[in-house]
Amino acid sequence: MSSIQFEVIEHDGVRYAEVIWAPSVTSKTQFCSPDSGSMQFGLLAHEAGFVEAAHYHKPIERKIHNLAQMFVVQKGKVAIDFFTAQGRKFKEVVLGVGDAILLIDGAHSVRVLEDMQCVSVKQGPFLGMDNDKVNIQVES
């Protein structure tokens, strides 16, 4: 049985984010992101006793033009706001415990609504704050 609650956040042809909501369940591994995405987002599921053969991932040079970041909320509540390049907010997503988001492209901000803790994964290497983020002016 599979019931993955998956949401794609797009604006003007840009895929800003993907969300897997906490109530999602699946009986088999299923990825929701397109194969062409720079990060693959989905759920792993196997029955007890499953063993994946020992392996490593081939070191293939890839060109990645976006720095994707993924959060899984472990505690609290957080809002992610999405903005156009001109600073106009067009979407808000509120995440609670167990919700996961893959931030792919475009401008966003994070607002902590309740004391929170998240697992966060993003592509490296980290090149320092001056090279990692570009702040934009937002409309009020």
Which features would summarize this protein structure in a list?
two-stranded antiparallel sheet; 45% strand; Jelly Rolls; 140 residues; 1 helix
Please explain how this structure is put together.
The chain is mostly beta strands. The protein has a single domain, classed as Jelly Rolls (Sandwich). The chain has 1 helix and 10 strands. The strands form 3 sheets. Strands 2, 3, 7, 8, 9 and 10 form a 6-stranded antiparallel sheet that branches. β7 and β8 form a beta hairpin. The longest helix has 4 residues. The mean pLDDT is 91.
SSE pattern, N- to C-terminal:
EEEEEEEEEEH
Class derived from helix and strand content = mainly beta
The CATH topology is: Jelly Rolls
Distance between the termini: 45 Å
CATH architecture: Sandwich
Taken from the alpha-carbon principal axes, the silhouette is globular
Radius of gyration: 17 Å
Report the average pLDDT across residues.
91
Name the beta content range.
over 45%
Largest sheet: 6 strands, antiparallel
How many β-strand stretches? 10
Count of DSSP-assigned helices: 1
**Tally of domains:** 1
